[in-house]
Design a protein that fits this description.
Elements: H1 2-17, H2 20-36, H3 43-51, H4 62-74, E1 80-84, H5 90-93, H6 96-106, H7 109-123, E2 125-133, E3 142-146, E4 153-155, E5 169-177, H8 178-184, H9 189-193, E6 239-260, H10 264-301, H11 307-340, E7 342-349, H12 350-357, H13 360-365, E8 366-383, E9 386-392, E10 402-406, H14 423-444, E11 447-449, H15 457-463, E12 481-483, H16 491-507, H17 524-534, H18 536-564, E13 569-573, E14 583-587, E15 589-592, E16 598-602, E17 610-614, H19 624-637, H20 642-647, H21 654-765
Antiparallel strand pairs: 1-17, 2-3, 2-10, 4-5, 5-6, 6-7, 6-8, 8-9, 11-12, 13-14, 15-16
Helix pairs in contact: 4-7, 6-18, 10-11, 14-16
Length: about 775
Amino acid sequence: MAKKKKADIVRQLFHYSNNFIREQWQNVNQEGYDFAHDDQLKETEVASLREQGMPTFTINRILPVVEMLNYYATANNPRWQAIGVEGSDSDVAAVFSDIADYIWGRSDGDTLYSNAVNDSITKSLGYMMVEIDKDADNGMGEVKISQPEPFDIYVDQKSRDIMFRDASYIMIRKVLPKSHLVKLFPDQKRKIDKANSDEQTNFSYTRRPMGTGDQRTFLYDDDSMDDIGITAEGEQEPLIEFFEVYEKLKIAYMNVFYRIPPSPEELQAIKQQVQVRMKEMSAEMEVELMEQQQQMEQAVAEGKMIPERYELEMQKAQQMMQQQLQVAEQEYMSELQAAQSRIENKVISEKEYKVLLKDKTFAVNVVDAVKFHGTRIKQCCLAGDQLLYERILPENVSEYPIVPFHYKWTGTPYPISAVSPLIGKQKEINKSHQIMVHNASLGSSLRWMYEEGSIDAEMWEKYSSAPGALLPVRPGTERPTPVMPAPLSNAFFSIVQEGKGDMEYLAGIYSSMQGDTQQQHETFRGMLALDEYGTRRVKQWMKNSIEPALKQLGTVVMQYSQAIYSANKRFRIVQPSAIQEDRELEINIPIFNDMGEAIGKSMDYSAAKFDVRVVSGSTLPINRWAYLSELKELLQLGVVDDLAVLAETDIKKKDLIAKRKSLYSQLQGQLGQLQEAIKDKDGTIETLERQLVQAGIKGKVMQAEMEITKQKEQVKGDTQDSYRQTEAEQKLLQNVMGNEAEMKKKEMAMEIEKARNQLQDNKNNS
């Protein structure tokens, strides 16, 4: 029942999006697409022109404009850069450009991008889509880019963001044969077989309304199916609506900060450290207890404390010591555990957090938890009234995988194309050319007015325009007179020329930009100035529409690649330059400990955090002559080398030339090193020669210095001998004086002791 309800909701969303405004927008832009691709006349218009004898050709002035706009937007591949949010993410962020190039090349991004830009020019809106090819790389999965049809996509009409980021949903609706849908979803064959569509399954990629006689057949219907959707029995297979809906959800998350306790090994080391500390404390407290015991024993001996009190106090002191040791052990243990613990944070869903809180070990280590709501993308796929599957995309993905490329954004999901303003001028040019050609045809092939029965009409019609023909006229009748066409007004020629100029002005693509040599500037600098100023409108479109879309595409590619490329993976990066060689890139490299256990990752791409930006102007064409001229100037200044200039030229076999240049540079470097070595040796020889000359002078100087030093030492020795003799005499004198003083002290002490004894004898006698 829930699946049936979901199918009904999706269908309601489709009807809500497929309103009158969208149908009108699609018809207008389909007309622009038809005009750009040379479908400019309805069948009724063709029939009317033929009935009047008018030509039915058209002069397509829109297609060159479309092609030039497409060229300016897609001349080069887009380039993305990633900036690490944290310093540790910078190295990983640097590889994003390579991974984006890998995904781009694998998806044939050049073609898809060109098609998307072409859709934006002709249909006002193009799309690129990021998907997961889960079967690629032996089931490991790959990120790929696709290009959906703009008219198959339905967007929340209340969206006001240029990238549709504020849309509550984006929907893809297709009409497919069931067999094709089974090939896309082989696991859902049972559901697809019983699926039913109660909607109109005929659809058209043309501007003409359904059911009109002049509608071109681009339909899945009985007449145009051919072999599409035909069963083995030759019967037409029923068509089915396929819906792929993306919705943005707000899911409650918890940013949890929690403590990670020490490992068993760390805990064992902590216990050993505590035991050592406790032994030291116990020894210190034993000394204090012994001192306290001695004091109390002395008190008992002096009668100040009774023995019973002594025993009681000793018991209390021992108990207190044990309690203090236990408390100290617990505190020290807790202190060391806290020091060894780490505080980490992890983002988990609120549901997961509530489940984990039931674990007491986890709950006790939670330091803080902050609740917030994160954006997630929900994908839902239906075949008719059957729900095939419903899932939430990986956590890394928070943006819609469908990226729009607008031409002229209107603040709504219904932009304006580059072709729509040109359609009126195109019709004007077509009509003017048709009239001018028709008038010229009438002037070269005369019409005749004749009296009935005066001539043989068939003979005149056959031979009237033949040179030298003799045309009979019946006697007595009026001779046929030619009917000359009215002179064509010069206004038609003006309309064509002005219409051409108006189209160039409206589109911002001028003749000089298309290679019209008549409009080119005579000087090289003038050409550069014309190229710079003439492309400003194109560059403005690139800046306001294309580059924001490319930035959003890069962001989605980043999110999907981080979700898929979480395991160790090697990428082969193909460089665009012929001078640069292909190389390999490795991410998520496991790090092992001594036990062979994985303890982390190097170049952890999936966990890195970085912002993506597109290199401005990376897709614009480069003026080769101006660029090469600038490189030559930089080469003369020494800013770049000749290999950098060579890489930007169109010289054949420039890779071989670069290798020869590199080898020649190496040989030159080696030759320079040898020359420097020779110079060093020559300098060494000259230095040795100078040293030999100087050696004689230094020898004489050293001899004189040795003589002077000898005399100095002799004088110093005599001085030291005199000093030692004087010092010895002083010490002898001090010893003699000291001995005499000591004898005097002893004599005085004996006299004092003799006096004290005499006083004591007198006291005793008294």
